[in-house]
Amino acid sequence: EGFDYWFAMPTGGNRYQNPPMYWNGEKREYPGYTTDILTDKALAFIDESKDHPFFCFVSYNAPHTPYSGTPEKYLDLYRDCPFETFPGEPLNEPIAHNLSRRNVGNRESKMHYYAMVTAIDHNVGRIAAKLNDLKLAQDTLVIYLSDHGFLLEQHGLWGKGNTSWPFNMYDESMLVPAFFHHPGSIPSGYTSRIFTSFYDFAPTILEYLDLPPLASGKPLAGRSYAAALRGAEMEWDNVVYGEYQYCRMTRDEYWKYIHRTEGFESELYDLQNDPGERRNLAEHEDYSDRKERLKRRMDEWFTSLDCGDEDLWKNAEQKNLPSYRRVLKNTGA
Question: CB burial class (10 A; 0-12, 13-18, 19+) of residue 29?
Fold first, then answer.
């Protein structure tokens, strides 16, 4: 049925100071820092909705680029920081895209990135405090997620999957934080070790909230891990799948296989002995059977969803992405 209130950026990214925003379809400029402004709107909505059930989705654009407009109070925390959690790997020249070239080894980028994450942390704390103040915390399911991971100089790259050419599917660009908080229902301090993906999210939340499953005329990926949220043991095969244009991937606890079309190299990693994904075994004769088994498993999963054709991504209506044009140009399509 859609949202009752809609406060959104005009594009996928936005500037961080005095941003243009849409409020229920009307565009105007809002004074201040974007992360604070988004939180202010969320807090106002929670205040207005406190007497009846509500759903509030808060999506920060930080720490996305541009690395500018970050408040000094957050930057000051990191002016003397040694940034020891950054591996300091040199730029991966053969595959690095522009975002990596601008930011790998750049101290200012590191400072802004840390400061922006700290601003998010502060503002999420404001939302949690509001729920506590209104005595809603015990009866509210709070979920913290990110839409993708991020390479911060690992593999000599900076960004997600499209920060390299060809696109990468390293763990750092794929793994995301996933925190669920619901006192009395979700055990405090509990960490589940099962492998899940975003296609599992909808069936999980619907089951957790005792709502009917999604209706669709097409087969849907995803399983519910609602029982795991409550701390129960589950039968779970710890296999995930992914796709990013010409890249498809399957990963379990021991192996990751990345299959690329369009003439790009595929990859196979032994994650037990090579968790950093440094030694590609895809063309190693000793691992040919392993690669074929993983590819067969991956193909069977995509086929079960009526997505067996590896070129389906080319049918997208939106064909103006630079990466899309670049692939088609390379292949003469």
Answer: exposed
